[in-house]
Write a structure and sequence with these properties.
The protein is an alpha/beta fold and 296 residues long. Helices cover 36% and strands 16% of the residues. It is built from 9 helices and 10 strands. Bound molecules: glutamic acid.
Length: 296
């Protein structure tokens, strides 16, 4: 089977040092396998998307010498596919409507003596599993069942009991927005993605995505989660804690910085194209190391 990889940024702002790592690793991995590299703009979370950010990201990738092998997909144009997948899940009894507001979910946990931080993820307590009892449907959830064992090429064997650790998770949000989990699974399958390479902050979504793939009868890609760039406060680098947009006047320096995070050796080159060409064999060496159990 031919390798097909992708970079799937959310256009919430321009690429920064952290997101370039995922872009670069996905590109190098596709090239090292002689495969295709696609770009998909994940613009489903409309309130978080910024006008012009997607175009900026594509321009930044091009300035760094990374061109997608096929036309870019935009999730905002994929609603029909997500709707069809949701209908199939409802028909097979795997998805169900939920009327719970966040404060109702908090109230259930409070009754059980559990308090959440405002931005903490809530495990869904399963309130609407047995029906809405006349209440209005707000969101759609997947009935999460079973423990998922999966393998990450860098992190090794992983396991998550999704029912216990996450609960029935959202596929379509109140107000109709499509959830990342559904959109990413439908599109990875529709684009024939065989290998997913993305930042380690997304690793704990993988078990949910595998459950969804199984529920929809879709193949599971091979996963590799790359190291994160940390900000001065020790948290993942993001716009909120000081990430700046990449300096397009110095793309080779930006690539060099991303390469360090991936434990690639220093590569001297004049142009991004020359730099990338030299980085492909170096990456092939890194992934051989992953297979032998070394993790940067
Ligand atoms: N759109 C997601 C993000 O930018 C990445 C999704 C993925 O690679 O699965 O965080």
């Amino acid at each position: 089977m031919r390798y097909r990889g992708r970079f799937a940024p959310s256009p919430t702002g321009p690429l920064h040092a952290g997101s370039l790592v995922a872009a670069l690793a996905s590109w190098l991995d596709a090239r090292a396998h002689g495969g295709d590299w696609l770009v998909r703009i994940e613009d489903v979370d409309e309130p978080r998307c910024r006008a012009g950010a997607a175009e900026l990201i594509l321009g930044q990738l091009a300035a760094c010498g990374m061109q997608p092998d096929e036309p870019v997909w935009w999730q905002s144009q994929r609603g029909d596919a997500y709707r069809a997948a949701l209908q199939a899940l409802v028909a097979s009894g795997r998805a169900y409507p939920c009327s719970c507001t966040r404060s109702e979910i908090d109230a259930v946990w409070a009754e059980r003596g559990v308090r959440h931080q405002p931005d903490a993820e809530r495990i869904y307590p399963g309130t609407c599993r047995g029906g809405l009892h006349g209440k209005p449907a707000r969101a759609m959830r997947l009935r999460a069942e079973g423990t998922v064992h999966w393998h990450d090429r860098r992190l090794g064997p992983q396991v998550q009991d999704v029912a216990r650790e996450v609960g029935d998770f959202v596929l379509q949000r109140a107000g109709g927005l499509w959830a990342y989990q559904l959109a990413v699974v439908v599109d990875d399958a529709a684009q024939g993605i065989t290998h997913v390479v993305r930042g380690e902050d997304l690793a704990d979504n993988t078990a949910r995505q595998i459950l969804l793939q199984r529920a929809l009868g879709l193949a599971t890609p091979v996963y590799l989660h790359t190291p994160l760039v940390l900000a001065a406060d020790g948290r993942k680098l993001s716009k909120q804690n000081g990430a700046r947009a990449l300096d397009l006047a110095a793309p080779v320096a930006a690539l060099q910085e991303a390469a360090q995070v991936l434990a690639l050796p220093r590569i001297e080159a004049q142009s991004p194209a020359d730099w990338l060409a030299a980085a492909v064999p170096a990456w092939a060496g890194i992934i051989t190391g992953f297979a032998n159990g070394s993790t940067p």
